[in-house]
Write a structure and sequence with these properties.
heterodimer, A: 452 residues, alpha/beta, five-stranded parallel β-sheet, 31% strand, globular, B: 492 residues, alpha+beta, FAD/NAD(P)-binding domain, D-Amino Acid Oxidase, Chain A, domain 2, eight-stranded mixed β-sheet, five-stranded antiparallel β-sheet, 15 helices
């Protein structure tokens, strides 16, 4: 067994891992970054479409280019990159056990950043009935087949789920010469970004069936067709509304799940997003274990992943250097509660006993949330007990677009720590017409591209 | 070439008989219409080795189950097949038929099966904390166990193969001609002459039987749908059955040998022998059935669903032994639940009946009862893992992240006797692709390993049967043939 020691161990070398590791390195820490793949950049390696880097680098680039910007920084750092190495176990004492072709690697770290990303939900997770032929893939697997392996996984496609990867694959497959018959979404609205609907489906005349789902997979050996049906408000298929599509492949783009198998082994507490519960320092319930990126919450923009991970990298470095960063369970914590209209909100808690190093620092308490369903003309509010401490007006809010905002130190310093903080939506009194709604949808699409 | 025995079907029954026959000096071949061992009824099976109190007294089912259950320990130890006698509960909920439970208890006592009725809810809850609060009593049978049905069949096939039994896949039997002292078994690719034929053809046993003029039974396919949940440590400790009906043992909830939880099967009589589709009402029925026994069952942990077809004979019992119509033609037909539990007893009985029918079977002195232990990396200690990787670095390369299956194990599965030739073949031997991501991560990697090890193009790698390939050529070729001009070009 090869034994190594470091200040900060970063698990995963995707966008979160790269940003966390470089940030911890800047602080002068001995950093090890471990990844199961032989290449760096994680899923970005297969994301050869544009749309990355608008916030982070103020230019639009493809996924591999974005990753390369960070990879190019590595030679000027002291980060030890451990590739082709799968972490199998982690303890609350921050011992990591991993394997690679050289053998077992045991890494004893002072602090750890979890940056393992997420995985795709599968057919079983959503119970699609029918046969089990070849030709049913998650969109990400198909993306790997096409973009990395260079093989066509089908010729005629139906895509279930209007997640971003699914819509991006609809365009990619069309470019490769395949026919995409339909994108089918059970919700009454697209679940990915509006810009992806416009640029990947509308521009290519690919129909999007909202409030529909797959009710049958045909074909015993290979997919020979897909039947979809309209669903009612309870998501039950409506008899008589079936539509059959001739196709040989069904892609699933039905959501992403943070990948926390290793976190669980160390006893990291998971929350509503399936990711770890953290406080504003991105620290979990275990001292010295931090989390950032899609392992914490599924982001829609990689730029936000990098920013979040930089913070985790900085905190992990400080923790390794001996600063006591409050963990999730430490006292003086105020829970954040997702109220009306809010799907989830992070961090889970805000710790009021802020170490001296952070007192008065702006940008420390960043909240991220997603709304449950698309809504117009809302106030996003935070109340502490009955006292309103934050209010911002939004013309449009969509579940596909993560909302990030800050609670400033001066706001937090005055709150009653015995009361929780509730984040909720409150309708704004405005006159709306159908026409203006349409108009601002487009505008909103633009603003998404510009990012937060 | 003249074979002594030709077994039709490589499910759990066919492979058990093949292994039993391989103990004797005989030339045996197994013909399988599909591409691998355990490809039909065996693979979509609950994987329960029943205690044996359930089947009606006096039936072959009851006799074989009672005889077969104790045979698993030695076989599983010899062949390194994971097996866990975790025990089973028949769960009698408030208002259910306790008299029938008492009757089953009496069956158990009469048949010498360890069995008891527990009525104290506290005691029951101690044994099974997540069982329904409405539980009035359970019938506890400690000798029931769980096993992987395909690992069992694959191990028995390997053992048979090591001892000289030949296997021929993708070889559907089209006709059988009875000669004076032998049979000609015809398939699209080869003709087999054998002194005796053993019909272990599962769903198609009636059709095979009719080929020699024995139309004494019919196989009625009965579909069962299952939902498989992720591994949930310490959630369940026993196999939980509802109070059974005449038609089936009902929808059970049970841990699998690998630590997942499954719910199912329902029971639906079918016209078709090929309809393995799952349905909305079927899956709903399964889910509801599961919730009755374990109300807190976390359905959100579902990772897949699938269906299997039971090969039920119209007399509702196993049919074992020589056909009344054709001497030398032996039946192992109508083998449905408790078929898995009975397969070792059926094989043993069948070979006895073959001897009694006048076939002389002389025991081999050099029968190899065991096989090389397959490496299961995830179950090894860190020291064992380190030693293994040092010997072969491919064991340090994880291919399936959910189940921690390494390249070394996959190569081993391909290279073993009766090795994997398909992605499902790798899956059933190693569990690569059986975890929570259902192959999303590892299937591209497994496809590449199969292509490399078998010297094939990626285009020619299949999931299971020949029609189940993954790819339609390389993107660069496909694009040349099919691509539409890009958006901008069209506009110009």
């Amino acid at each position: 067994m090869i034994e190594k020691e470091c200040d900060v161990a970063v698990i995963g070398a995707g966008p979160a891992g790269l940003a966390a590791a470089t940030e911890a390195d800047k602080a002068g820490c001995k950093v090890m970054m471990i990844d199961r793949d032989d290449g760096l950049g994680g899923i970005l390696q297969q994301c050869i479409h544009p749309g990355f880097g608008l916030i982070e680098f103020k230019e639009e680039m493809a996924g591999p280019e974005y990753a390369q910007r960070y990879i190019d920084m590595l030679p000027n750092t002291n980060i030890e990159v451990v590739k082709g190495t799968m972490v199998l176990d982690m303890t609350s004492d921050k011992e990591i056990y991993a394997i690679n072709e050289q053998g077992i690697v045991k890494i004893v770290a002072k602090s750890i950043v979890l940056a393992m990303g997420c995985r795709e939900r599968t057919r079983g997770a959503i119970k699609i009935p029918g046969y089990r032929p070849t030709g049913v893939y998650t969109a990400g697997t198909a993306q790997r087949f096409v973009n990395i392996e260079g093989f066509m996984p089908g010729t005629k496609f139906v895509i279930l789920g209007s997640g971003d990867i699914g819509m991006i694959m609809a365009r990619r497959l069309t470019w490769e010469g395949a026919k995409v018959q339909a994108v089918v979404e059970i919700l009454p609205f697209p679940s990915g970004l509006v810009r992806n609907k416009v640029q990947c489906l509308d521009d290519y005349g690919i129909p999007l069936y909202l409030s529909h789902t797959v009710v049958r997979v045909h074909g015993r050996d290979r997919v020979t067709g897909i039947t979809i049906a309209k669903v009612d408000d309870a998501w039950k298929p409506i008899p008589g509304s079936e539509i059959f599509f001739d196709c040989d492949t069904l892609l699933l783009s039905v959501g992403l799940i943070p990948e926390n198998e290793v976190s669980k082994k160390a006893g990291v507490k998971l929350g509503k997003t399936n990711g770890p519960e953290v406080n504003q320092f991105l620290q979990t319930n275990i001292d010295g274990i931090f989390a950032a990126g899609n392992v914490l919450q599924v982001h829609d923009l990689v730029d936000n992943v990098s920013a979040e991970a930089r913070k985790a990298g900085r905190m992990a470095a400080m923790s390794a250097a001996g600063t006591k960063i409050p963990n999730l369970n430490d006292g003086d914590s105020v829970p954040l509660v997702a109220g009306n209209g809010i799907g989830y909100v992070l961090p889970t808690k805000i710790n009021m006993a802020i170490p001296d190093e952070f007192v008065g620092e702006s940008g420390l308490v960043k909240l991220s949330l997603r709304v449950k369903k698309p809504v117009n003309d809302q106030y996003l509010k935070v109340k502490n007990g009955e006292t309103e401490i934050y209010k911002k007006a939004f013309k449009y809010m969509r579940p596909s677009e993560m909302i990030l905002f800050e609670l400033k130190p001066e706001v937090l310093s005055g709150i009653d720590a015995s009361q929780s903080l509730e984040v909720f939506l409150e309708p704004k009194e405005v006159e709306t017409t159908e026409e203006t709604t349409e108009e601002v949808t487009e505008e909103s699409a633009e603003s998404t591209e510009g990012g937060e | 070439m003249l074979y002594d025995y030709c077994i039709i079907g490589a499910g759990v029954t066919g492979t058990a008989i093949a292994r039993e026959l391989s103990k004797y000096k005989a030339k045996t071949i197994v013909l399988e219409k599909l591409s691998d061992i355990a490809s039909e009824s065996t693979k979509a099976n609950s994987g329960i080795v029943h205690a044996g109190f359930d089947a009606t007294t006096g039936t072959m089912k009851a006799e074989m189950n009672v005889k077969g259950n104790p045979m698993f320990d030695e076989l599983c130890s010899d062949l390194y097949i994971p097996f866990n006698r975790m025990g089973s509960f028949v769960v009698c909920l408030a208002g259910q038929n306790m008299d029938y439970v008492e009757e089953l208890y009496q069956h158990g006592v009469e048949r010498g099966i360890p069995i008891e009725i527990i009525k104290d809810l506290d005691e029951i809850k101690k044994m099974e904390p997540n069982i329904s609060n409405d539980t009035e009593a359970v019938l506890y049978a400690p000798t029931a166990g769980v096993i992987s049905p395909f690992k069992l069949a694959i191990a028995m096939a390997e053992c048979a193969n090591i001892n000289g039994v030949e296997f021929s896949f993708n070889t559907p039997v089209q006709s059988i001609e009875k000669l004076n002292k032998s049979f000609i078994v015809d398939t699209p690719t080869r003709s087999i002459q054998a002194r005796a034929v053993i019909n272990a053809a599962g769903l198609y046993a009636d059709e095979i039987s009719r080929m020699i003029g024995d139309a004494s039974f019919k196989i009625l396919p009965r579909r069962g749908e299952y939902i498989l949940l992720d591994k949930i440590p310490n959630f369940l400790n026993h196999v939980l059955f509802p109070v059974p009906t005449k038609k089936s043992k009902g929808i059970l909830v049970s841990p699998t040998i690998d630590g997942n939880i499954f719910i199912g099967p329902n029971a639906e009589d079918m016209e078709s022998k090929v309809d393995l589709s799952t349905t909305v009402p079927g899956l709903d029925e399964v889910m509801e059935g599961g919730k009755k026994l374990v109300p807190t069952i976390p359905m959100g942990e579902s990772i897949t669903n699938f269906a299997g077809l039971r090969a039920v004979s119209d007399n509702n019992d196993f049919i074992i032994g020589e056909s009344q119509v054709a001497s030398g033609f032996f039946q192992a037909s109508g083998i449905q639940s408790p078929g898995l539990s009975s397969c070792l007893a059926i094989a043993d009985t069948e070979v006895e009946l073959i001897k009694q029918a006048g076939f002389d079977l002389e025991a081999k002195e050099n029968f190899i009862a065991t096989r090389e232990k397959p490496v299961v990396f995830s179950e090894l200690s860190w020291e064992e893992r380190a030693a293994l990787i040092e010997k072969d670095p491919r064991f340090g390369h994880v291919i399936c992240r959910c189940e921690t299956v390494t390249e070394g194990e996959i190569v081993q599965a391909i290279k073993r006797p009766i090795g994997a030739r398909t992605v499902d073949g790798v899956k059933f031997r190693t569990r690569a692709g059986m975890g929570r991501c259902q192959g999303g991560f590892c299937s591209p990697r497994v496809i590449k390993l199969l292509a490399r090890e078998l010297g094939k193009n990626l285009n020619d790698v299949v999931k299971r049967e020949p029609g189940t390939r993954y790819f339609f050529g390389e993107t660069k070729d496909f694009r040349k043939l099919n691509a539409q001009p890009a958006m901008e070009e069209r506009e110009e």
